[in-house]
Amino acid sequence: MKRLLLLISILTLVLLPIGCVNTEGMIRNTIEDALEDLASTYTIKVCSNTTGLNFSGEYVVVNAAYDPETWVVYNSNSIPVEGQVPQEYTVHDVISVGGMFQKQSVNGTLEVEIWKDGDLIDSSETADPWGAVFVMTIGEE
Question: 23: burial class by Cβ within 10 Å (0-12, 13-18, 19+)?
Answer without folding.
Answer: exposed
